[in-house]
DNA sequence: CATGAATGAGCGTTCATTCAT
DNA sequence: TATGAATGAACGCTCATTCAT
């Protein structure tokens, strides 16, 4: 039941937004009563936190898994991370959209926790960029922090528009974005 | 009065989110009563629509102004548009954040109107990219639509993190992002 | 309207108790809606506080009025205060019962304020007793504080049982209690 | 288990009040589940009734025990009853406070039963007073019923303020109150 | 133009109670 | 004996909106 609540909530939060979705909406969809919801979650905000925490934790784990593999180049490592973000958004679009849009509705305390982890995710990219610069793979005139913001921006933004039914496969998008970022669009 | 309502609303919507901000919150800040609000706006949603419409209209106008100038290259034109987005987010951060985050709370009908204009903004970029490809300025293996998504993604994302008090000036950010997009980060 | 809310609330709080009386109960009785209640009171607790504050303030004022009059003896002054308590309970029975029974439902902060005033009321009695002892009117072997507790106990308790329709008039009760306390029941 | 439920409930009812204490609060304290509670008690109200019944029954029994002893005077008998009330409040403060404050939350039917027993307790005092009057020990100008109300008032009220850690021992309080009532405070 | 009183629908949450196991 | 999942009714409270003045 708990996992069903999470599943339905994500769909509803994605469609209507967190604050516009009522507990009633959620339990109606599951044909249970509000009491049941509160048997599993102490508050609506706690549910949102659970969703956020699971999302970012899994993503961070996957990122560390990538980081700890061995690579022939830092550029390849960056491509792998671009792939991680894109495939995650494609595969868990609803969760991703909830994650990106509804963080504001967490409590101060919870926001802090999530922000820290999100920051860590970006800092890990920044570190790879720094290594790439140090090893002469990446140009040194562009600030690693801004590059990392650029990478998460370009990839994360796709949660706003990417459609599974579209013409471009995830792998193609990974390829295009990787080329854009690494070699630019200039001829 | 009407413009003061808009001004305060934007600040509050940015800080607390649209659905968490009450009409009471808005009028309290202006030291008027709710009646006054409803004299100027027929509903809370209408106010949000006004904010959205003004924002995207101004942005589109600025974009057309850029497009209609003459350029030595399409790349320069793209840089100009990157500059437009960045400076707008820096200068009108609150409006930008409300625009990006709260669109969902518009009515179906209004959403359609705004989405169309947002799409037009991106399509205008796509057109420039297409021209750039046609004239051999931009590589032809990356799909103009995806490139345009990439450009708006990388730039728009900055509303999530850019801080005026930070180390990087808007112009530096324009420069970095322009280089990233046009020539890539590879050494 | 505000005063009607107070009036009805006191009756309901007396009859059903504070926590068993719902806002709905109150507004139903007045044929208005819950919104109306919250237009006048920010919370149920705030209403209870208003009731408490008005009650104890008026009582204290009446007590000071008595204290500041001139008397032929301290005993007469004590009788006057016994009269004050008894007549107050008889005349404002509902308020008195709410005051004595529901204080616990105030917030910590509010409880402190009310407790202080209640204590002051008793201390004022203690002071009279002390003066009475000092001037040889009252025996000195019984502790003024305990005497004051005795006086408020014997009189306040009547909120638990006194009925206007009973055989004993308030004035008779004042007389009986004054005699009991001042001269004892021993023959 | 049943007695542990009673014990904990009394403490919680005293601290938070009956209607503010939830079954969950009670069972949490005992590290069992709500099912357990309902195995022993059919309802929350039934538990309250049990507490009330046990309290007043024991008190009445103790009172009869006093009444059935032989005394040299009716005044001594009254003192013994004052002692009973005071020591009971001191020793079973929590139960006493619950008894005095929460009766209102019993059902109509149960209230009637308890009220009857409480009345009996007072009537027994009234009878002693009457006998005292008849035998010339107690003055006959003060109504035995009012005197009995005075006695229970002055003594019962101590549940509102008496603190075990205070300066006055129970026995001292008994002495003071006995003197106040029997011989008055006049010099 | 603006106010202030009032509405009514809905929300998040609590909780006594039930019941199959 | 005891649990744990679920119910359903109610509660305190919020808020966009209306409207007579």
Compose a concise summary of this entry.
The first copy, chain A, is mostly helical. The first copy, chain A, is built from 9 helices and no strands.
- Bulk shape of chain A: elongated
> How many angstroms does the end-to-end distance of chain A come to?
55 Å
How many strands, what sense, and barrel or not for the largest sheet of chain A?
A: none
CATH class type of the largest domain in chain A: Mainly Alpha
User: What is the tally of helical segments of chain A?
Assistant: 9
What's the architecture of the largest domain in chain A in CATH terms?
Orthogonal Bundle
Which structural class best describes the helix and strand composition of chain A?
Answer: mainly alpha
Low-confidence stretches of chain A: none
Order of helices and strands of chain A: HHHHHHHHH
CATH topology of the largest domain in chain A: Tetracycline Repressor, domain 2
- Report the largest inter-chain contact: A-B, 43 and 42 residues
Rg of chain A is 19 Å
Q: Give the domain tally of chain A.
A: 2
